[in-house]
Amino acid sequence: MPFASVDPSSTDITPLIHHPVLWAAAAGVFAVIILQSVIYFRAIRKAAPAVGLTPAQVSSSVRSGAVAAIGPSLAVALIAISLLPLFGTPAVLARIGLVGSAAFDVAAAGISAGTQGAQLGGPTYTQKIFALAFAAMTIGGLAWMISALVLTPILSRGDAKLRKVNPAVMAVVPTAALLGAFFTLAFTEVIKSPAHMVTMIVSAAAMGVCLLLGRRLRRPWLREWGLGVAIIIALAAAHFMTAA
Fold first, then answer.
1. Low-confidence ranges of the chain (pLDDT < 50)
2. Predicted pLDDT of residue 41
3. Hey, which of 60, 87, 185, 244 has its CA 20 to 30 A from 110?
4. What are the residue boundaries of the structural domains of the chain, listed by start?
5. E strand or H helix at 149, and its extent?
6. SS3 for 7-65, per residue?
7. Measured distance CA(235)–CA(71) in Å, rounded
């Protein structure tokens, strides 16, 4: 679609949210992700023998990671679908589909629109407001990426020093950090309603049963697919709780 069709004061944002430049940018982002994934998979397979991992173990780990990504991916996909009318497919793919933080992106877009006295999706949501909102989301994401780029080497040096002082510390810290993060995420949800509490308990029980059966029956696939099974059972429990 030509640039001449873009009118900053127009409330018809369709020509802008589906602009070829945005499609090209989104395609470029995902091309980089695919290339990185290929490089990482090759590096994993090449380094596996050095750490005592067999090809079967590597494949099992990849499958486990793929299954574990189903739940978060479904959540992001549902949120992305609801935001398509506001931001369009290319912007949603590049922002929510890539970063996955819909709460931050919507908040940033809403704040930027509010500075112009406009509202997302309202009669004042013009092409100019969309451009400002998308710029705010992009700049916020860029700050995260730059922070990771700067802080990762610093944290890596700290990790190396701690391992020299006490290797056991770095075996405990990552586990504690993960437990703390997941506990925080779970706690913020379960306090919302009894349905949230029941859903979490059911999902935890389903995951525990899958792990137990996988160990007792010597069926590794039960452990790999445990998260996916727990998600499906939890969704069913949530449906019955809210429908009751």
1. 1-4
2. 86
3. 185
4. 1-165, 168-244
5. helix 127-165
6. CCCCCCCHHHHCCHHHHHHHHHHHHHHHHHHHHHHHHHHHHHHHHCCCHHHHHHHHHHH
7. 10
How many residues are present in the chain? 244
Query: Which own/partner contact pairs does 41-49 have at CB distance under 8 Å and 24+ positions apart?
Result: none
The first and second tokens of residue 3, run together, are 């640039």
Q: How far apart are CA 17 and CA 153, in angstroms?
A: 37
**Contact between residue 9 and residue 129 where contact means Cβ atoms under 8 Å apart:** no
Owner of token pair 């913020």: 188
Query: How many angstroms separate the CA atoms of 195 and 133, rounded?
Result: 34
Q: What is the pLDDT of residue 72?
A: 67
**What digits encode the pLDDT tens for the residues 26-47?**
888 888 888 988 998 888 888 8
CA distances from 71 to 38, 60, 115, 147 (A): 23, 18, 35, 27
Residues 2, 6: Cα–Cα separation, whole Å: 8
In three-state form (DSSP H/G/I as H, E/B as E, the rest C), the secondary structure along 169-204 is HHHHHHHHHHHHHHHHHHHHHHCCCHHHHHHHHHHH
The one-letter amino acid code at 15 reads P
pLDDT reported for residue 135? 87
Q: Please report, in angstroms and rounded to a whole number, the separation of the first and last CA atoms in the chain.
A: 49
Is pTM beyond 0.70? Reply is no
- In this structure, what token pair is assigned to residue 69? 């990504």
* 72: its two tokens: 């978060």
Q: How far is Cα 56 from Cα 211, in angstroms, rounded to an integer?
A: 19
How far is it, in rounded angstroms, from Cα 236 to Cα 140? 36
What is residue 209's predicted lDDT score, i.e. its pLDDT?
A: 92
pLDDT at 12: 78
